[in-house]
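Attaching the record inline, Q. Sequence:
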Amino acid sequence: MATINRRITASVEGDFVVFIIGTRLNRWWKLPKYLWFLSTMPKMLAEVAAEPESGFLGWEPLNLTTNVQ
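Structure, as predicted:
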């Protein structure tokens, strides 16, 4: 995925909400304990995207543990 190294904007009519969802792992050696969490996010996103009436427009990953919806 390419990085956009400039400011960009979007023109949107009506209400619009952006969620930045993620987690921070302070103790990387405990990563195996939290692998279940990393596998749940794609399932939740697929479920919301399957229902057009939900208003979900899409998502972009920022890194391993964060995405913008």
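The helical segments are 35-49. The chain has one helix and three strands.

More tomorrow.
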